[in-house]
Design a protein that fits this description.
By secondary structure, this protein is α+β, with helices and mostly antiparallel strands. Helices cover 26% and strands 20% of the residues. The protein has a single domain, classed as Alpha-Beta Plaits (2-Layer Sandwich). The chain has four helices and six strands, in the order αββαβαββαβ. It starts with a helix and ends with a strand. The structure holds iron/sulfur cluster (2 copies).
């Protein structure tokens, strides 16, 4: 039970800013759906090596395997694999994923 309570506590909404528009992503919602509802197009994305700490939260969230990199080192996005779903934006707490 304690674990479930903890898991629920961690499921907070995430706020991201895209093209100057603030998007509130509720737990379980898809970033692309929230963006589409707000009329915001998800741009091509890249990782800012100055900000990325290699925590790998984004790689776990990326369904296409577009993000790669060693732990604790700056990651990168393979544009050929990225489908611009935006899920990585919601996972990166350091704001290291930015428009390409
Ligand atoms: S936008 Fe989607 S497909 Fe592209 S890198 Fe991020 S999580 Fe992966
Ligand atoms: S979530 Fe952000 S800091 Fe962590 S590896 Fe991905 S881009 Fe880097």
């Amino acid at each position: 039970m304690e674990r479930m309570a903890e898991a629920k506590k961690q499921q907070k909404e995430v706020v991201i800013t895209l093209n100057g528009v603030e998007l509130v992503i509720p737990p379980g919602a898809r970033v692309k759906d929230v963006a589409a509802a707000a009329g915001v197009e998800i741009p091509a994305l890249k990782v800012d090596p100055e900000k990325c700490k290699g925590c790998q939260m984004c790689t776990k969230a990326c369904e296409t395997g577009a993000i790669s990199g060693n732990k604790k080192e700056p990651h990168s996005i393979d544009q050929a694999l990225c489908i611009r779903c935006g899920e990585c934006l919601a996972k990166c707490k350091l704001g290291a994923i930015v428009p390409a």
